[in-house]
């Protein structure tokens, strides 16, 4: 799994967070942006939050847009919004948008020696084990929506604020 998945989840979380800004203001939590909750979020704002270059954010946004998770608008007043409700987007959706076609676990870089008695059988065995592990990961990610993640983060922020 690449760091792009983490960036995608951060982006989706920030977009969901921005749609909750009004209710967050009421609870005393602020994102510091000063913008209206209905405004699209720019790649520059997302990049500042993630602490990376906006070009990196735009590349991830391209994958999220192709997967139907975000809508983008170019030009003045443009930016990014969630394409669907945060309650209907899961971490699995983000994973599949970013990591589909990528191996979760690395295999043999050039394949095992075909003359070895163990290598080819071990390669098949590991593919089966890794396949089951990835399916388990996807099932776990499917149980977490972006909305539930944001709610959990808000609760953690409140707890941290109360403790300080």
What would your notes on this structure say?
By secondary structure, the chain is mostly helical. It has one domain: Arc Repressor Mutant, subunit A. The chain is built from seven helices and two strands; from the N terminus they run H-H-H-H-E-E-H-H-H. It has helices at residues 3-19, 21-27, 43-50, 54-66, 91-99, 119-142, 146-163; strands at residues 70-73, 79-82. A hairpin with a 5-residue loop joins strand 1 and strand 2. The radius of gyration is 20 Å and the shape is elongated.
Secondary-structure blueprint of this entry?
Blueprint: H1 3-19, H2 21-27, H3 43-50, H4 54-66, E1 70-73, E2 79-82, H5 91-99, H6 119-142, H7 146-163
Antiparallel strand pairs: 1-2
Features:
two-stranded antiparallel sheet; elongated; 164 residues; Arc Repressor Mutant, subunit A
What's this model, at a glance?
The chain is mostly helical. It has helices at 3-19, 21-27, 43-50, 54-66, 91-99, 119-142, 146-163; strands at residues 70-73, 79-82. It is elongated.
Strand order of the largest sheet: 1-2
Strand content: under 5%
Distance between the termini: 35 Å
Radius of gyration: 20 Å
Unreliable sequence segments: none
Counting DSSP H or I runs of 4 or more residues, the number of helices is: 7
- Series of H and E elements: HHHHEEHHH
Alpha-beta classification: mainly alpha
């Amino acid at each position: 799994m690449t760091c792009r998945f983490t960036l995608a989840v951060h982006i989706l979380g920030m977009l969901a967070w921005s749609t909750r800004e009004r209710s967050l203001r009421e609870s005393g939590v602020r994102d510091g942006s000063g913008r209206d909750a209905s405004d699209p979020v720019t790649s520059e704002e997302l990049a500042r939050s993630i602490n990376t270059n906006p070009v990196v954010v735009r590349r991830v946004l391209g994958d999220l847009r192709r997967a139907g998770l975000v809508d983008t608008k170019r030009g003045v007043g443009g930016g990014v919004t969630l394409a669907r409700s945060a309650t209907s987007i899961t971490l699995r959706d983000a994973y599949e948008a970013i990591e589909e076609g990528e191996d979760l676990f690395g295999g043999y870089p050039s394949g095992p020696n075909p003359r070895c008695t163990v290598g080819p059988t071990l390669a098949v065995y590991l593919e089966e084990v890794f396949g089951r592990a990835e399916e388990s990961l996807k099932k776990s990610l499917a149980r977490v929506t972006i909305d539930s993640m944001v709610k959990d983060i808000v609760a953690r922020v409140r707890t941290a604020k109360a403790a300080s």
